[in-house]
Amino acid sequence: MTSEIKPISRRGDLTNNVLGVILAIGGLLMLAFLGAKLYNLYVSQDEKNAAAVLDSLVEKIKNVEDKSEQNFVLNGVQDWFLVAWVKTTAEESKPGKCFDKDCLCICKSSSDKDTCQQNGICKDIGGPIEVSSNVLTGPTFKISSSAHCIYILKKLQSFNVKKDGPKITLFHDQGLWKDDELYKKYKLCEGFVTNFVPSTPHKIGLK
Question: Residue 19, SS3?
Fold first, then answer.
């Protein structure tokens, strides 16, 4: 009894291969779509968190009495900068959204005017405001740095607000950091100043 050898169906194999490729492409497109959706959700939530931080700050600032100061703590949002521009700053030196305003801005990843225009949220404070901060970095030789910005971390952060007539000052002390990452972040800020502190560390302010 001889067994019958069936001919190989090349058309069937080709059809199966084509279907396999189509399914694979469809799967990749679906993964890309879901990935984009998740990314957009993350970005949207990140912006909402940043806006909430700015709203809380503005509310706290408004509640400080004239000729007084107040310390408070807020929950931060990772990798955003606080920076301010006053009404008298030259138009070409500040974001367009701060035109003719004394504004406080929270900006993603950098504090320059272009970043704040594209990826920042700004609020009119109603008076000239100055933002500054200190940070000590380095495992051996301490580097005392100050700048016209505040880098925000995703943790509770303390702020100091002073009011003297129309002038508002917002300050944050980052304390001591043993690595250079925070130092690199602050180098992006305007008014960046450093001093080397080889022995007992001390902290310096902008003014």
Answer: helix
| Count of structural domains, the chain | 1
**Full domain range(s) for residue 187:** 41-197
Contact between 108 and 167 under an 8 Å Cβ cutoff? The reply is: no
- Calpha distance 86→45 (Å, rounded): 29
Cα pseudo-dihedral 202, 172, 183, 143, rounded to 10? -10
Rg of the chain over all Cα atoms, to the nearest angstrom: 27
Q: With respect to residue 106, please indicate whether it lies within any of the assigned structural domains.
A: yes
Token readout for 79 is 């990798």
Does residue 30 form part of some domain? no
133 and 172 Cβ atoms separated by less than 8 Å: yes
Single pTM value for the model: 0.72
pLDDT tens-digit readout, 7-59: 545 566 666 676 776 776 766 666 655 544 443 444 588 999 999 999 999 99
Residue 188 CB coordination number (10 Å) = 16
pLDDT at 182: 79
Strand order in the sheet with 80-85: 120-124, 103-108, 80-85, 150-152
Strands 129-137 and 167-177, sheet pairing: parallel
Residue 3 resides in a domain = no
Residue 182 lies in a domain: yes
